[in-house]
Specification:
heterodimer, A: alpha/beta, Rossmann fold, 4 helices, 38% helix, globular, B: alpha/beta, FAD/NAD(P)-binding domain, 15 helices
């Protein structure tokens, strides 16, 4: 269990700007969209950290909250478009969880825009970049 | 066992100039448990792979981190390489420093690359090996439905040497093929096709026919289904590796859309075919025959296709005048545009309406009044027969079938609720396929494509007689499982079943071959009893925690 590892054993980040954003990306769509953005040299802010998941439905409330706990400025959950999920309902379940997190954030007085569910297809590199930029701008506004 | 991590950094032939590799190597070496850090120029080439092999074997590491291009493009190569070395490929963790780091940002991105490598290391530390095993699968296939698609599937499977059993509800084969008169795109008439296919099916030693039979229960998973087949009063259980459903559709006039109830003059397609097959029975030759479309359903291509076929058949056999009243003729199926041209050339008149035509019966004929929007004129035609539009609907028993299979139906009640764009003939369950009209594919050319696609899928699954699975990659911990059934309810692939542990305790069990590895169950389990090796909670959290820096409070 990583959280019980002694601190010296763990990698705790090196450098990089403030305001890191965690993006949970479905390996069937959003992860490929991010790859494509790289291939097309569409530049986006470098404070986003992409975590590959087999389906957006794998992302648990726990994962999103832990990201906030560890200092993430924003969390994006990126899955397939609705009706085109490889696993039928994964993206819908992810959306429900993101809504739940939004309500939880609201309760403790944090801007709900810090978490967002994004639906994109594997070729939507522009949309991926737009969403990341939007998130960064929103956070810098505050 | 103590974790020993080997790290390979690849600078993609020296092209990733905005990452300082020696700097990363220096920083990473300070972390504990790192056996070595190698910088290579091209891991994906032969020499790179040789280097990986010799380093892994030489240093005796038990986790590997590769920082290179996207796993989408390189992962399978490395997995194959590691398998060859007898190194469990599940112990590999990849950091994507090319597409999602070097290429995606301007300026020096060594910091981000270092973070990505750190995330991969944190994850690699927690990875556990997953055994890969071959399991036997049953090579027999069950085809339900003995219509055109069913017979075609059986014949094509038989050519590939797969034994097939065809179950048909009716006492004879053929389905709705006997109701058609001439079908465009096929050179022979449906009747001849039916008899020749029936003959072939009967002669084929690989095909077993069960007519007047129905399936009542399906158990098991892809590769090993157990199906109960009821035939008369007898009911027996048989084993199959895959199931193909070709249960077809039914076509009906929906009377609620017509002011006049269908009677002697407003007839269905089937009645028209009966007339065409025995024109001598009529008192006199009908002079005008009208077809009406797009009243009940604007979205179906079946009525358009049937009407065009029938209109041509009428022209050929009776030589009557033919009017087709339609809103928007659907010509998107293969060859239908040509069929439409041919119909026009033969003198079929198409009247395009916007408002619903008025239909009344006068002097034993049907009067149809419509406004032709292309000419802006009122058109009224007296027809001897008006052929009403038939709507393709799921055949009887589709719902019962869906509940037997534990799969869903779509909004119109057809068999397939699976994502039709990704898996054209598949279903949520592996090894269960739907072809032809039962999934709403209502024309012959598309249905034939379905058959080919399903046969390919079945062959891929069963041809070797065995399948490779990752044993317990997703696993339920019976100690934690409270048998709340949540995972069984949410599993999109129906891969989870409840099994008995002892007299009192039940637990959920995941079937490896049926599981597609989405991890939805692992996320939703309230008891956190499901462990998805490779994407376990701790492994994802380890990646998340690698980012802790700015507000780094413990």
């Amino acid at each position: 269990m990583s959280r019980f590892l002694p601190k010296s054993k763990r990698w705790n980040g090196s450098m990089g700007g403030n305001n890191k954003i965690v993006a949970f990306c479905c390996e069937n769509s959003a992860y490929l969209a991010a790859d494509r953005a790289g291939k097309m040299r569409l530049h986006y802010p470098d404070n986003v950290r992409i975590i590959r998941v087999p389906c957006a439905g794998r992302v648990d409330v726990l994962h999103i909250l832990r990201a906030f706990e560890k200092g993430a400025a924003g969390v994006l959950v990126m899955g397939c478009q609705e009706g085109a999920c490889q696993h039928l309902t994964g993206n819908i379940r992810a959306r429900e969880r993101v809504r739940y997190i939004e309500s939880a954030l609201k309760e403790i007085g944090i801007d709900t825009r810090r978490v967002k569910m994004v639906n994109l297809g594997p070729d939507m590199a522009q949309k991926f970049v737009r969403e990341v930029k939007e998130m960064v701008e929103k956070i810098e506004e505050e | 066992m103590k974790v020993k991590i080997g790290i390979f950094l690849c600078d993609c032939g020296g092209s990733l100039k905005n990452i300082d590799f020696p700097e990363i190597s220096r920083s990473v070496q300070e972390i504990e448990d790192i056996a070595f850090v190698d910088i290579s120029h091209n891991l994906c080439l032969e020499e790179g792979r040789k280097a990986i092999a010799s380093r892994i074997l030489g240093k005796n590491v038990n986790r590997v981190v590769i920082a290179a291009c996207s796993p989408a493009s390189c992962e399978h190569n490395f997995i194959r390489l590691l398998e060859g070395l007898n190194f469990n490929p599940n112990l590999l963790s990849i950091a994507n420093i090319r597409e999602q780091c070097s290429w995606a940002h301007e300026g020096n991105v060594t910091g981000k690359a270092l973070d990505l490598v750190g995330m991969a290391i944190n994850k690699a530390r927690l990875l556990q090996p997953v055994e890969r095993k071959e399991i036997p699968v049953n090579k027999e296939v069950l085809v339900v439905g003995g219509g055109f698609c069913g017979m075609k599937s059986a014949l094509e499977l038989s050519q590939l040497g797969i034994r097939t059993t065809v179950v048909e509800r009716e006492p004879i084969l053929g389905g709705r093929l006997s109701e058609l008169e001439g079908f465009y795109g096929f050179e022979i008439s449906p009747k001849e096709m039916l008899s020749s296919m029936g003959e072939e099916v009967k002669k084929d030693a690989n095909i077993e026919m069960l007519t007047s039979a129905e399936i009542t229960r399906v158990e098991g998973d892809a590769g090993n289904f157990s199906v109960r087949i009821k035939r008369g009063v007898k009911e027996d259980s048989r084993d199959f590796g895959a199931l193909i459903f070709a249960t077809g559709c039914k076509a009906e006039i929906l009377p609620r859309y017509f002011e006049l109830s269908p009677g002697s003059k407003i007839i269905s397609q089937r009645e028209l075919v009966e007339i065409l097959q025995a024109p001598a029975k009529l008192e006199r030759r009908p002079e005008v025959i009208g077809f009406i479309l797009d009243i009940a359903d604007e979205n179906s291509r079946l009525p358009s296709l049937l009407a065009l076929n029938a209109a041509l058949a009428v022209k050929n056999k009776l030589g009557s005048e033919v009017y087709v009243f339609c809103k928007n003729l659907k010509v998107d199926s293969e060859g239908v545009e040509k069929l439409y041209q041919e119909a026009r050339n033969r003198g079929v008149v198409f009247v395009k309406f916007e408002e619903k035509p008025r239909i009344s019966e006068r002097n034993g004929r049907v009067k149809v009044e419509a406004e032709d929007i292309l000419f802006g004129e009122e058109v009224s035609v007296y027809c001897d027969f008006l052929v009403a539009e038939e709507k393709g609907l799921p055949s009887e028993g589709t719902e019962a079938l869906a509940s037997i299979l534990n799969t869903g139906v779509d909004s119109q009640g057809f068999c397939q609720d699976e994502n039709v764009y990704l898996y054209p003939v598949g279903s949520g369950r592996k090894g269960v396929f739907f072809v032809g009209a039962c999934r709403g594919n209502l024309d012959a050319a598309r249905a034939s494509l379905d058959v080919g696609s399903a046969v390919m899928n079945v062959y891929e699954l069963l041809a070797l007689g065995k399948a490779v699975v990752e044993v317990e990659k997703v696993k339920v911990d019976p100690q934690k499982c409270r048998a709340c059934l949540t995972c069984i309810r949410v599993c999109p692939h129906r891969a989870i079943r409840l099994v008995k542990v002892d007299d009192e305790k039940w637990t959920a069990k995941i079937y490896d071959l049926a599981c597609d590895g989405c991890g939805i169950c692992a996320a939703i389990c309230p008891a956190k009893a499901i462990n998805f090796e490779g994407y376990a909670d701790e492994q994802i959290l380890a990646e998340v925690e690698a980012m802790e820096w700015q507000y780094g409070r413990e």
